[in-house]
Amino acid sequence: MVNRINSRISVPTGVVILLWAGYTALQTLYVVGYISDGWSAILGFMPGLIGLGILLLVGHSRQELYLVARPLSRPGFLVLTVVFLVALGAVLPFSFWGGWNWKGAFIYAPASGISQELFFRSVLLPVMVMIIKGRKKIGLVLHSLLFGLWHIGPLFVGAPPWAVMAVMLVPFLCGLGWGWQVQRDGTVLWAMLQHSLIWVIGLQFILPGG
To answer: Fewest CB within 10 A of the end CB: N or C in the chain?
Structure first.
């Protein structure tokens, strides 16, 4: 029994942190232009799928990883409303309509939203909670910090540090909201849907100089 518990803690933790590092490197390479939209959409699923496979293999259930369909609670809906306003409010006022991007809306947006939620909310969030022995609030903050840091890519294309910090702040706040809702309602479904919708909308707009 002790060996089984240790395997559920030590093995996934190290591998998941490595997956996060690789996923962050992949996202950074995409931001700087070394990886195309298509390859980014495909490869972006790998960290989440590998992480889920490992966690399920060592004994975690789909319920523990939020891979179940459950209703969206009223508190969850309110939090997701705030996330929606924060995410789009940080982009749309500073961008302009670029025309309808069909490929982005039907391929890249869902791929990005679903793949990010699979890794960050269904893999990284449970592992962070596991690391700090079930303290959900601390695990929530830790996973959100890593979600924000995952967006460090603009630093490597010449963006000033203050701008990079601002770029990472929004995902950190959204990560708190998505993570809280996922923990509250026990399902990653609604975060996936909203994250994808935000991408559908955001991909129709272009930032100046983008």
So the answer is: N
